[in-house]
Design brief:
- The longest helix has 54 residues, at 2-55.
- This protein has two domains: 1-56; 57-360, YVTN repeat-like/Quinoprotein amine dehydrogenase (Methylamine Dehydrogenase, Chain H).
- The protein is built from one helix and 28 strands.
- The model is unreliable at 52-57 (pLDDT under 50).
- It is mainly β and 362 residues long.
- Strands 1-28-27-26 form a four-stranded antiparallel β-sheet, with no helix packed on it. A four-stranded antiparallel β-sheet has the order 2-3-4-5, with no helix packed on it.
- It has one helix at residues 2-55; strands spanning 66-69, 75-80, 87-91, 95-99, 110-113, 119-124, 130-135, 139-144, 149-155, 161-166, 172-177, 181-186, 192-198, 203-208, 214-219, 224-228, 234-238, 246-251, 257-262, 267-271, 276-282, 297-299, 304-308, 314-318, 324-328, 336-342, 347-352, 356-360.
Length: 362
């Protein structure tokens, strides 16, 4: 009897010892992976900082890099509130999420669910109270940020919504769609459709550019146009701006220069006051943009231009010269779908097709 118990205990000890050996082996493997990561990170920093020194540009410190899995699938859009106290994202998981740039990204402020619809585009109002989203289900949703709930749904488009914005006076919402129309909605008074503008090419992105009821539009034919919301007429056309779809329109803080991103793998600038395309453009042999709504942005008070690529890399250029200053890696793992800069945190954000966000301190 004693021998049987002894043998049983010996077998248990041998089993535990075997499991311990496996665990130790796994720990050793993880430590080796960590060592390789630290070596790679150090080499990356050395190369990046050497390039920064040679080009009189930006330095990168990956110790301040933050990364978080925000959505369970592709992120379609990322934007800032006008006062910079909130960052919002929307994704193919059906969620719109709101975050404080001064807090940890893993603890969002609140989440808006679109009940099975996929939000494709989002926009804050100037009042920091109203928020609007567009979906693949052809609908435009108006949200109250203070009440954290859906206020109204606008229906009228016949295809998926591509972009949504508020007018500067906060009385109307403007939306564009794959149905080749731009619609103007009265949300402040009667919550009805006011105008419909017919377009020759699908409008991918909208931007309110001034207080004259004019809106800048970026289209799949590579042109940018300025429409009057009063007359519904085209005021200005920037032909041959890009050779493929325009994927983003981003204004500088003075609302004078507009950054235009495109699937032709270039980023350009329009001087809205002078009504001309500026000669400086931003491109690189390793920069590629195949995402229909990939957003480029101005960075650090407009001194730089930042954009994400299909290869998970973030590119930063000098705005004045178009010279490439840095290529950031080791952050995103999927195709980058958008970038933005937050004034409150003074950090850049990049989101990708895996549902992740990376916060860069540069």
């Amino acid at each position: 009897m004693v021998m049987e118990v002894r043998q049983e205990m010996l077998d248990q000890l041998n089993q535990l010892n075997s499991e311990l050996d496996k665990s130790q082996k796994k720990i050793n493997e993880l430590q080796e992976e960590r060592r390789k990561y630290e070596i790679l990170k150090q080499k990356f920093l050395e190369v990046s900082n050497k390039a920064a020194s040679e080009n009189n540009c930006l330095k990168v410190d990956l110790k301040d890099l933050q990364k978080c899995q925000l959505h369970t699938s592709e992120i379609n859009s990322i934007i800032n509130s006008y006062n910079g106290d909130m960052v919002a994202t929307c994704g193919n998981d059906g969620d719109v999420r709101f975050y404080s740039p001064s807090k940890d990204l893993s603890s969002w402020l609140f989440k808006a669910q679109t009940l099975g619809e996929i939000p494709t585009c989002i926009s804050f109002g100037l009042d920091n109270e109203n928020f609007v989203s567009g979906t693949t289900d052809k609908k435009v949703h108006l949200w109250s940020l203070s009440k954290q709930k859906l206020v109204h749904t606008f229906s009228g488009h016949t295809e998926a919504i591509t972009s949504v914005v508020f007018t500067k006076d906060m009385t109307r919402i403007v939306s564009s769609s794959n149905d080749k129309t731009i619609k103007v909605w009265d949300f402040y008074y009667k919550k009805v459709l006011l105008e419909t503008i017919e377009c020759d090419s699908v409008c991918n992105v909208l931007a309110m550019i001034n207080d004259k009821n004019q809106i800048l539009t970026g289209h799949q034919d590579g042109t940018a146009r300025i429409y009057s919301l009063k007359s519904k007429e085209v005021v200005k056309v920037y032909k041959d701006l890009h050779t493929a779809s325009i994927t983003s329109l981003s204004l500088d803080k003075d609302l004078r220069i507009c950054l235009t991103g495109s699937k032709d793998n270039t980023i350009k600038m329009i001087d809205l006051r002078a009504e001309k395309v500026l000669p400086v453009e931003f491109k690189h042999e390793n920069y590629a943009n195949s995402y229909e709504y990939n957003k480029a942005a101005f960075y650090k008070e407009g001194r730089y231009v930042i954009a994400g690529s299909d290869n998970s890399k973030v590119f930063i250029w000098n705005r004045e010269t178009g010279k490439l200053l840095a290529i950031l890696e080791a952050g995103n793992v999927g195709m980058i779908t958008g970038c933005c800069y937050n004034l409150v945190s003074s950090k850049a954000y990049s989101v990708d097709s895996s549902g992740s966000i990376v916060v860069w301190a540069i």
